[in-house]
Write a structure and sequence with these properties.
The chain is α/β, with parallel strands linked by helices. It has helices spanning 5-17, 19-100, 106-112, 114-121, 167-184, 199-208, and strands at residues 127-133, 143-152, 155-165, 189-197, 210-214. It has 2 domains: 1-104; 107-214, Trna Endonuclease, Chain: A, domain 1 (3-Layer(aba) Sandwich), CATH 3.40.1350.
Length: 216
Amino acid sequence: MSLSAEEKRKFLKALEEDEEFKFAVAGFLGYREILERIVELEKGHEELKSGQEELKGSFEELKSGQEELKGSFEELKSGQEELKGSVKRLEKTVNVIAHRFGVLSETSFREGMKYVLEEEFGVANVGRFLIEDEDGLVYGHPSEVEVDVLVKDGRHILIEMKSRVSKGDVAELYRVGKLYEKKVGVKPSLAIIGGMIDEGAKKLANKLGVKIVPAI
């Protein structure tokens, strides 16, 4: 609604002459300004709330992406471990076959069997032990007998490494064990790390208490 010129004049005059009216108008105008500012604040609050929802959505997307990335990383890590295991198995197989057919030296073969030693006994190296067999207990005549010996947690373990394990290999290690017990005074455990293992060797090893550890 518009005021006439006369009404405006009266309104202004009232403001000049009537203190109470003047303060009433001023209070009204101030109240209106406050209401307008409240409306603006509410509008700003809604915009802020909307922004927070968008930010929350972006955070959830980021979190989801991180989970997917973590899953991919775990799959990659698992694949690498499987590949590493396959390479080890292949390497051991090649070592066994190469030694069996004379392509690989005894030293190289033993070096290649370190994987098996570490997996089975927790060590990669063993000591070489030389025993004088004056009575011919092992080979039927006086000789020097060499054997790998691992001493761990108070146990003495005699270890042989063969690309192929026969009944004769099992019987020989059993006799070496008897000689070791006689000379050292300790009854050892016996183990053969082998590639190709004869069925008869398995049966005799089970009977004599010799552990056979497959190399492949």
